[in-house]
Design brief:
Distance between the termini: 19 Å
Shape: globular
Structural class: mainly alpha
Radius of gyration: 20 Å
Largest sheet: none
Amino acid sequence: MASTVNDRTEARPGYGQLLRTPGAWTFLLPGFLARQPFAMLTIGILLLVEHTTDSYGIAGAVSATAGVSMALFAPQSGKLADRFGQGRVLVPGVVVHAAAISLLITLALADAPLWALFAAAVPAGASTPQIGPMVRARWAAKLEGSPLMSTAAAFESVTDEFTFVIGPVLATALCTGVHPAAGLVTEAALTLVGGLLFAAQRRTQPEPSRSAAGPVVKSASALSVPGVRVLAISFLGIGSVFGGMQVSMTAFTKEIGDPGLNGLLYGTFAAGNMIAGLICGAIAWKVTPQRRLLIAYPLLVLATTPLWAAHALPVLGGVGLLVGLCIAPALITGYTLVESLVPPTARTEAFTWLTGAVGLGQAAGASIGGKLIDGHSASTGFLVPLAGTALALAVLLTLRKALTPKGESRIAARGVGHREPVSVD
């Protein structure tokens, strides 16, 4: 199958060819539904806790606790999914998540002590289903060695960002227009229903490594690959953009007296990411992904520079759109590099490390940004994206050699008919 896909797509990989991949729609549709809550969780916690405590610092810290918990536990969930199968891990996970969110909502509305909110945020974040990495792992299993892998990475980035357009807008509208807890209630319901539907699609999930290997063989962690560690730090910086933008835009719209615009403002930022993702996936790249990342990331740092100085809504919307346009190329390239850096038996784990790094950066960005906002103003919160990406860029430039796979291409090592090694680009 892999060689057939290569023969059909070598000339110009595109979205039409990608979506005609046999069995793709069976996991794409339930996966799309199940991943919507991912963008609703932190903003839902932020809005609910800010409502009950009247503090962005506390709200950001509780939201950050959930994000840190997710970042720490997500790779373990990915590792279990690689070993035992996605369905066996996902079904109990979504049930636990729905219960944890219900507990957090109850405690927040009951004016429970702060320690109780922080304690409840831990299982809420830890049980967050990693649908995006699981979908990416299914693409990687179907398209191994194909030029369509880059297109799939772009498609998934666009899908992720579409959720970041819909999720914050929906959560904000529900929290401000219906009830402060309505965003999290919807998040839990979508997680449960969408997660169970996705888990039911067992035919398209990658073969568990335990089944493929026969006797149980302990495999190395994806984090043992140097390139994955470098990418994780890069994604940590990208996460700080999401977190810093989220809490700062929330505070900014409240300062100007129109908090309902928060979802629209953040949606504009996410829309830029989505537009750039569509463009990146439609281009037949001749530049290596390593070089593309080293070009895209500095541009992202430059785009975040004027955020703190944008004091008018139209200006902030325009700068936010520009930042969004610069995020997608870095994200897409990072996910594309996983296929050449990590063996198939550890890819779900690798994807969860990257997604978890984004979540961790988002949590840190929201927490630090919230403290800056409480002490100064909404504008100071926008310094977080600049600082986070600048630090990550320094690490990326220093350790950039780790992004080049050692020795022969993994594609050639596994063998794809008689073909020469094909770059994912």
